[in-house]
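Allow me, if you will, to draw on your knowledge of protein folds for a short while. I am sending you one protein, given as its amino acid sequence and as whole-number tokens for its backbone shapes. Kindly check, if you would, that the fold set down in the tokens agrees with what the sequence suggests. The record follows directly beneath this note:
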Amino acid sequence: MISINEWQKIGVGITGFGVFFILFGILLYFDSVLLAFGNLLFLTGLSLIIGLKRTFSFFFQRHKLKGTSFFLGGITIVLLRWPLLGMLLEAYGFVSLFKGFFPVAFGFLGSASNIPFLSTLSQRLQGSSSMV
């Protein structure tokens, strides 16, 4: 089992609050203050979870510089109170940064049929989609 320390537990909470504020800011018609606060909390929580050195090395790898520049540029644009443009830039940067992770996530979702609750849910969803 993987052991996590107290800083990582705090980081998970801060990242969760960051995602909440980002979603709440989008829900409230791209409120720039909530989006900026959510972005700062998300990056702070990520730094606490995996550490400053690993966060820096993740964002500033040579092949990820384009995604990093769009992501951090989007955060800067949100902080300058242009939330819609900033979130579009962030979304592109996020997809560009994590495009290598998406096949792993989809592979996990494909194997989720072995989990009891998710397999029932997936069977019901497949049954309702075939009726359409």
